[in-house]
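Please review this one:
***
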Amino acid sequence: MTHFAAAKIISLYEQHAEAWKRLRTTDLFERPWLDRFLNLVPTNARLLDIGCGNGTPIAEYFIQQGFGIMGIDSSGSMIDSCLKTFPYQQWRVADMRELALDETFGGLIAWDSFFHLTRNDQRQMFKVFRKHAGSKAGLMFTSGPSDGEAIGTFEGEPLYHSSLAPAEYRQLLHENGFRVVKMVLEDPECQGRTVWLAQSTI
C-alpha cells in the first residue's frame, strides 16, 4: 500500500518553497552527470527540466552553457522564483504526470523529482518522456536503488520517495524508445544518488 505522504508531495513543496531554497545546496556536485547529459543533447536544442524547483542550480547551469530551458514544477512559488531569476526562459506550473506540451526537446531531465511519484505513476511517466523527446534526445533522472518506498523528512513532515527495480527501469526505457547510456547505483561521487542517463533511439 502506498504511503499517505505520496499524496502530499505537491502541497509540501509549495508550503515550504522558501525552506527548500535555503536548504538546497548550490555547489553543483551534480556537474559531472550534467555534463554527460549535455554531451547527448543536439547543438542548440532546448531542454525540458521536469520538476525544476526554483531553477537553481541545475537549470541555471544549463542556461550558463547556452541552452534554452522550459522548466515545469507543481509549485507555483517555485515557478514564480524562476520567472524572477531567469525571465528570458520559459516556466510553467504543471504536474509532470499530466504533462502535454505539444512539443519536443533535445534533452529531458527529472533530477530529484521523478522519484517522488508512486511506482505506478513512474511507470506511466515513460510515455510522457517519449512524447516530449526529440530525435536522439538525452534523458536523465534519479531513482532509488531498488524496488520499494522510502519515507524521509522535510521541515518535520514525511517526504515520500519510491523506486522501481533497475530491471524494470531498463525495460520501460527500452519499450519507450530509449537506450541506457550510463547508470550508476548509489554513485559515491554524486552523494549516493542512483542516476540513469539514456538517449532516444528514434
User: Anything to note?
Assistant: Residues 119-132 form the longest helix (14 residues).
